[in-house]
Design brief:
Layout: H1 2-16, H2 20-24, H3 57-152, H4 158-199, H5 209-261
Keywords: Coiled coil, Signal
Region (Disordered): 22-174
Coiled coil: 209-260
Protein backbone atom coordinates (compact mmCIF):
# COMPACT_ATOMS: atom_id res chain seq x y z
CA UNK A 1 0.00 0.00 0.00
CA UNK A 2 2.80 2.32 0.88
CA UNK A 3 4.60 1.35 -2.32
CA UNK A 4 1.57 2.14 -4.48
CA UNK A 5 1.20 5.59 -2.92
CA UNK A 6 4.82 6.46 -3.69
CA UNK A 7 4.40 5.39 -7.31
CA UNK A 8 1.38 7.64 -7.79
CA UNK A 9 3.27 10.55 -6.24
CA UNK A 10 6.17 10.17 -8.72
CA UNK A 11 3.80 10.07 -11.72
CA UNK A 12 2.10 13.28 -10.52
CA UNK A 13 5.40 15.11 -10.12
CA UNK A 14 6.56 14.08 -13.61
CA UNK A 15 3.37 15.42 -15.21
CA UNK A 16 3.63 18.72 -13.31
CA UNK A 17 7.18 19.32 -14.55
CA UNK A 18 6.32 18.96 -18.26
CA UNK A 19 7.09 22.45 -20.07
CA UNK A 20 4.04 24.42 -21.14
CA UNK A 21 5.58 25.34 -24.52
CA UNK A 22 5.79 21.70 -25.31
CA UNK A 23 2.07 21.62 -25.11
CA UNK A 24 1.69 24.79 -27.20
CA UNK A 25 3.64 23.20 -30.06
CA UNK A 26 0.83 20.80 -30.75
CA UNK A 27 -1.22 21.70 -33.82
CA UNK A 28 -4.72 23.04 -33.33
CA UNK A 29 -7.00 20.88 -35.39
CA UNK A 30 -9.68 23.58 -35.31
CA UNK A 31 -7.42 26.44 -36.65
CA UNK A 32 -7.78 27.54 -40.31
CA UNK A 33 -4.72 27.11 -42.50
CA UNK A 34 -3.86 30.26 -44.58
CA UNK A 35 -2.82 29.54 -48.15
CA UNK A 36 -2.44 33.22 -49.23
CA UNK A 37 1.14 34.23 -50.03
CA UNK A 38 2.42 37.50 -48.44
CA UNK A 39 1.94 40.57 -50.61
CA UNK A 40 5.09 41.93 -52.31
CA UNK A 41 5.31 45.77 -52.62
CA UNK A 42 6.73 46.98 -55.95
CA UNK A 43 8.16 50.57 -55.82
CA UNK A 44 7.52 52.74 -58.90
CA UNK A 45 10.56 53.47 -61.11
CA UNK A 46 12.17 56.81 -60.14
CA UNK A 47 13.31 59.35 -62.70
CA UNK A 48 15.31 61.33 -60.16
CA UNK A 49 18.81 61.99 -61.43
CA UNK A 50 21.92 63.70 -60.18
CA UNK A 51 21.28 67.15 -58.86
CA UNK A 52 17.96 66.23 -57.33
CA UNK A 53 15.88 66.89 -60.47
CA UNK A 54 12.75 64.81 -61.15
CA UNK A 55 12.93 65.59 -64.88
CA UNK A 56 13.97 62.94 -67.38
CA UNK A 57 17.67 62.95 -68.19
CA UNK A 58 17.05 63.85 -71.84
CA UNK A 59 15.09 66.93 -70.82
CA UNK A 60 17.82 67.95 -68.41
CA UNK A 61 20.40 67.65 -71.18
CA UNK A 62 18.29 69.82 -73.48
CA UNK A 63 18.01 72.48 -70.80
CA UNK A 64 21.74 72.30 -70.10
CA UNK A 65 22.49 72.73 -73.81
CA UNK A 66 20.26 75.83 -73.84
CA UNK A 67 22.05 77.21 -70.80
CA UNK A 68 25.40 76.64 -72.47
CA UNK A 69 24.19 78.29 -75.67
CA UNK A 70 22.97 81.33 -73.74
CA UNK A 71 26.25 81.51 -71.85
CA UNK A 72 28.20 81.36 -75.12
CA UNK A 73 26.12 84.24 -76.48
CA UNK A 74 26.75 86.26 -73.31
CA UNK A 75 30.48 85.69 -73.73
CA UNK A 76 30.35 86.75 -77.39
CA UNK A 77 28.35 89.89 -76.59
CA UNK A 78 30.64 90.84 -73.72
CA UNK A 79 33.67 90.16 -75.88
CA UNK A 80 32.31 92.37 -78.65
CA UNK A 81 31.73 95.20 -76.20
CA UNK A 82 35.22 94.81 -74.76
CA UNK A 83 36.70 94.90 -78.27
CA UNK A 84 34.73 98.03 -79.19
CA UNK A 85 35.58 99.88 -75.98
CA UNK A 86 39.23 98.83 -76.17
CA UNK A 87 39.40 100.38 -79.63
CA UNK A 88 37.88 103.62 -78.37
CA UNK A 89 40.23 103.76 -75.39
CA UNK A 90 43.30 103.07 -77.53
CA UNK A 91 42.20 105.60 -80.11
CA UNK A 92 41.56 108.31 -77.54
CA UNK A 93 44.60 107.64 -75.34
CA UNK A 94 46.95 110.00 -77.21
CA UNK A 95 44.41 112.83 -77.23
CA UNK A 96 43.68 112.19 -73.56
CA UNK A 97 47.33 112.68 -72.63
CA UNK A 98 47.51 115.74 -74.88
CA UNK A 99 44.39 117.21 -73.29
CA UNK A 100 45.84 116.72 -69.81
CA UNK A 101 48.98 118.58 -70.86
CA UNK A 102 46.87 121.34 -72.38
CA UNK A 103 44.90 121.57 -69.16
CA UNK A 104 48.15 122.22 -67.30
CA UNK A 105 48.90 125.01 -69.77
CA UNK A 106 45.42 126.41 -69.28
CA UNK A 107 46.05 126.41 -65.55
CA UNK A 108 49.16 128.50 -66.13
CA UNK A 109 47.13 130.88 -68.28
CA UNK A 110 44.61 131.23 -65.47
CA UNK A 111 47.41 132.05 -63.05
CA UNK A 112 48.86 134.61 -65.48
CA UNK A 113 45.47 136.24 -65.96
CA UNK A 114 45.02 136.37 -62.21
CA UNK A 115 48.47 137.94 -61.83
CA UNK A 116 47.60 140.49 -64.51
CA UNK A 117 44.33 141.34 -62.77
CA UNK A 118 46.13 141.81 -59.46
CA UNK A 119 48.85 143.90 -61.13
CA UNK A 120 46.25 146.11 -62.80
CA UNK A 121 44.39 146.51 -59.51
CA UNK A 122 47.60 147.42 -57.67
CA UNK A 123 48.48 149.95 -60.36
CA UNK A 124 45.02 151.48 -60.04
CA UNK A 125 45.42 151.70 -56.27
CA UNK A 126 48.80 153.36 -56.76
CA UNK A 127 47.28 155.89 -59.15
CA UNK A 128 44.51 156.75 -56.69
CA UNK A 129 47.09 157.15 -53.92
CA UNK A 130 49.02 159.58 -56.11
CA UNK A 131 45.86 161.56 -56.79
CA UNK A 132 44.99 161.62 -53.09
CA UNK A 133 48.47 162.86 -52.21
CA UNK A 134 48.29 165.52 -54.90
CA UNK A 135 44.97 166.74 -53.52
CA UNK A 136 46.42 166.82 -50.00
CA UNK A 137 49.43 168.77 -51.21
CA UNK A 138 47.16 171.26 -53.00
CA UNK A 139 45.17 171.69 -49.80
CA UNK A 140 48.40 172.21 -47.85
CA UNK A 141 49.57 174.82 -50.35
CA UNK A 142 46.32 176.72 -49.99
CA UNK A 143 46.50 176.49 -46.20
CA UNK A 144 50.02 177.90 -46.21
CA UNK A 145 48.96 180.72 -48.52
CA UNK A 146 46.04 181.50 -46.22
CA UNK A 147 48.35 181.50 -43.22
CA UNK A 148 50.73 183.88 -44.98
CA UNK A 149 47.88 186.24 -45.77
CA UNK A 150 46.65 186.21 -42.18
CA UNK A 151 50.10 186.83 -40.79
CA UNK A 152 50.58 189.74 -43.23
CA UNK A 153 47.28 191.27 -42.24
CA UNK A 154 47.90 193.71 -39.42
CA UNK A 155 44.26 193.58 -38.51
CA UNK A 156 44.19 189.82 -38.12
CA UNK A 157 43.35 188.58 -34.67
CA UNK A 158 45.18 185.89 -32.76
CA UNK A 159 42.18 183.62 -33.24
CA UNK A 160 42.43 183.99 -37.03
CA UNK A 161 46.14 183.28 -36.93
CA UNK A 162 45.47 180.21 -34.80
CA UNK A 163 42.82 178.95 -37.22
CA UNK A 164 45.16 179.47 -40.15
CA UNK A 165 47.87 177.48 -38.41
CA UNK A 166 45.43 174.68 -37.55
CA UNK A 167 44.40 174.49 -41.21
CA UNK A 168 48.04 174.14 -42.20
CA UNK A 169 48.61 171.44 -39.61
CA UNK A 170 45.52 169.52 -40.74
CA UNK A 171 46.53 169.73 -44.40
CA UNK A 172 50.04 168.60 -43.52
CA UNK A 173 48.57 165.58 -41.72
CA UNK A 174 46.64 164.66 -44.83
CA UNK A 175 49.77 164.96 -46.93
CA UNK A 176 51.71 162.75 -44.54
CA UNK A 177 48.96 160.14 -44.53
CA UNK A 178 48.65 160.23 -48.32
CA UNK A 179 52.42 159.93 -48.65
CA UNK A 180 52.46 156.82 -46.45
CA UNK A 181 49.58 155.29 -48.41
CA UNK A 182 51.29 156.06 -51.70
CA UNK A 183 54.53 154.47 -50.53
CA UNK A 184 52.67 151.25 -49.70
CA UNK A 185 50.70 151.34 -52.94
CA UNK A 186 53.85 151.85 -54.99
CA UNK A 187 55.54 148.89 -53.31
CA UNK A 188 52.52 146.66 -53.84
CA UNK A 189 52.17 147.74 -57.44
CA UNK A 190 55.83 147.06 -58.09
CA UNK A 191 55.57 143.57 -56.56
CA UNK A 192 52.41 142.66 -58.48
CA UNK A 193 53.84 144.01 -61.70
CA UNK A 194 56.93 141.83 -61.31
CA UNK A 195 54.80 138.77 -60.54
CA UNK A 196 52.88 139.33 -63.74
CA UNK A 197 56.08 139.85 -65.70
CA UNK A 198 57.25 136.44 -64.50
CA UNK A 199 54.20 134.61 -65.91
CA UNK A 200 52.89 136.75 -68.73
CA UNK A 201 54.77 134.55 -71.18
CA UNK A 202 52.15 131.85 -70.52
CA UNK A 203 49.52 134.02 -72.20
CA UNK A 204 48.94 133.98 -75.93
CA UNK A 205 47.62 136.86 -77.96
CA UNK A 206 43.89 137.13 -77.52
CA UNK A 207 43.77 135.19 -74.26
CA UNK A 208 41.09 136.54 -71.96
CA UNK A 209 39.30 135.24 -68.89
CA UNK A 210 36.37 134.13 -71.06
CA UNK A 211 38.42 132.42 -73.80
CA UNK A 212 40.61 130.58 -71.29
CA UNK A 213 37.57 129.42 -69.31
CA UNK A 214 35.92 128.10 -72.48
CA UNK A 215 39.11 126.21 -73.39
CA UNK A 216 39.31 124.75 -69.89
CA UNK A 217 35.67 123.61 -69.94
CA UNK A 218 36.17 121.86 -73.30
CA UNK A 219 39.32 120.08 -72.17
CA UNK A 220 37.77 118.93 -68.88
CA UNK A 221 34.71 117.59 -70.71
CA UNK A 222 36.89 115.61 -73.15
CA UNK A 223 39.04 114.24 -70.34
CA UNK A 224 36.00 113.13 -68.34
CA UNK A 225 34.50 111.48 -71.43
CA UNK A 226 37.65 109.42 -72.00
CA UNK A 227 37.84 108.42 -68.34
CA UNK A 228 34.19 107.35 -68.48
CA UNK A 229 35.00 105.14 -71.49
CA UNK A 230 37.89 103.57 -69.58
CA UNK A 231 35.54 102.86 -66.67
CA UNK A 232 33.00 101.27 -69.03
CA UNK A 233 35.78 99.09 -70.47
CA UNK A 234 36.74 97.92 -66.99
CA UNK A 235 33.14 96.96 -66.22
CA UNK A 236 32.79 95.22 -69.60
CA UNK A 237 35.93 93.18 -68.90
CA UNK A 238 34.50 92.16 -65.54
CA UNK A 239 31.21 91.19 -67.20
CA UNK A 240 33.08 89.11 -69.78
CA UNK A 241 35.04 87.31 -67.08
CA UNK A 242 31.81 86.51 -65.24
CA UNK A 243 30.16 85.30 -68.45
CA UNK A 244 33.13 83.03 -69.14
CA UNK A 245 32.83 81.64 -65.63
CA UNK A 246 29.12 80.90 -66.18
CA UNK A 247 29.95 79.26 -69.50
CA UNK A 248 32.46 77.02 -67.77
CA UNK A 249 29.85 75.93 -65.23
CA UNK A 250 27.26 75.28 -67.95
CA UNK A 251 29.73 73.24 -70.02
CA UNK A 252 30.73 71.17 -66.99
CA UNK A 253 27.09 70.51 -66.11
CA UNK A 254 26.27 69.41 -69.66
CA UNK A 255 29.28 67.12 -69.80
CA UNK A 256 28.28 65.41 -66.54
CA UNK A 257 24.73 64.84 -67.79
CA UNK A 258 25.96 63.36 -71.07
CA UNK A 259 28.23 60.98 -69.18
CA UNK A 260 25.19 59.69 -67.26
CA UNK A 261 23.38 59.19 -70.55
CA UNK A 262 26.07 56.86 -71.88
Amino acid sequence: MKTAFCLLLLIGCAYACTPLNKMDDQPNPNAETSTTAPETSTAPESTTTAGGSDKPLAEQITEAETEKSNAEKAVRDAGAEVTELTGKVDQGKAKYEEDKNKLVTVGKKENALQAKAESDAAAETEQKAKETKAEAETELTKANEKKTEVEADAAATEEQKKDAQNAVDEAQGKVDKATTALTGAEAAASTKKQEFENVKGDLADGDTVDTVKAEKDTLEADIKAHEATVEKLTKAQEAKAKAEEELGKASEKLEELKKKQQ
